[in-house]
Design brief:
Structural class: alpha/beta
Number of domains: 2
Shape: elongated
Helix content: 25-40%
Largest sheet: 3 strands, parallel
CATH class of the largest domain: Alpha Beta
CATH topology of the largest domain: Rossmann fold
CATH superfamily of the largest domain: HUPs
Number of helices: 9
Order of helices and strands: EHEHEHEHEEEHEHEHEHH
Length: 301
């Protein structure tokens, strides 16, 4: 099976140093396996995506020598595919409409003695599950996946063995939001399958989403890619560098230096090159060595 990797940025702002780490790692991973590298613009949350930011991001990637092997895919063109997936789940009894607001969920959790903490997962208590009475005459706001019990086990090529009980740690998660927009989990699973993605390489902040996506892949009868989650670039306050905390856009007056900085995060040695193309050519075998070392570590007893 040919290897197909992807970089899937959300165009809510320009790429920053952390974004480039994920883009570079996914590109290198595809190249070391003679695979193809795709770019998907995850603009499903349209109100948060300024007009033209997708082109800014594509220009940043091009300046770093990162060119996709197929035409770019925009999630904003994929509504019918997501609707079809939701219909499939609903007809199979795996998805149901939900009338709960966040306040409703917090009250239900509080009644169980659970107080929602900031940044913690708000575990949905199953209030609108069909076997618990469904909507009870209330208007539907969102759609949720009915998560089966049991622990999901998966292997991350960098982090090693992973496990999560999605039912107890997350609960039935949203597939279509109350504002009518498609949820990230549904869109990414449908699009990875549509594009034939075999290898997902992305930032470590997304590792916690993996078990949810595997549950959804199984419910839809879709293949599960292999996963590798990269180290995060941290801001001065110790939190993940992000657009939300004011991460500076990439300085592409010096793209080789930007690539060098991303390479250091990934464990690449310093590379002596005067252009992005020459730097990338040297980075491919260096990444292959890192992957071999990771594979040897994971194979050790």
């Amino acid at each position: 099976m040919p290897v197909i990797g992807r970089f899937a940025p959300s165009p809510t702002g320009p790429l920053h140093a952390g974004s480039l780490v994920a883009a570079l790692a996914s590109w290198l991973d595809a190249r070391t396996q003679d695979g193809r590298w795709l770019v998907r613009i995850e603009d499903v949350d349209r109100p948060r995506c300024p007009p033209g930011m997708d082109q800014v991001i594509l220009g940043q990637l091009a300046a770093c020598g990162l060119h996709p092997d197929e035409p770019v895919l925009w999630q904003s063109t994929r509504d019918s595919a997501y609707a079809q997936a939701l219909q499939q789940l609903a007809e199979a009894g795996a998805a149901y409409p939900c009338a709960c607001t966040r306040a409703d969920i917090d009250r239900a959790l509080a009644a169980q003695g659970v107080v929602h903490e900031r940044f913690a997962e708000r575990v949905y208590p199953g209030t609108c599950r069909p076997e618990r009475g469904g909507l009870r005459g209330r208007p539907a706001r969102a759609w949720r996946l009915q998560v089966p019990p049991g622990t999901v086990h998966w292997h991350d090529r960098r982090l090693g063995a992973q496990a999560q009980d999605v039912a107890s740690e997350v609960g039935d998660f949203v597939l279509r939001r109350a504002d009518g927009l498609w949820a990230y989990q549904l869109a990414v699973v449908v699009d990875d399958a549509h594009q034939g993605i075999t290898h997902v390489v992305r930032g470590g902040d997304l590792a916690d989403n993996t078990a949810r996506q595997i549950v959804l892949q199984r419910a839809l009868g879709l293949p599960t890619p292999t996963y590798l989650h990269t180290p995060l670039v941290l801001a001065a306050d110790g939190h993940k560098l992000s657009k939300q905390n004011g991460a500076a856009p990439l300085d592409l007056a010096a793209p080789v230096q930007a690539l060098q900085a991303a390479g250091r995060v990934l464990g690449l040695p310093p590379l002596d090159a005067d252009s992005p193309a020459r730097w990338l050519a040297q980075a491919v075998p260096a990444w292959a060595g890192i992957i071999r070392a990771l594979s040897t570590r994971s194979d050790s007893p």
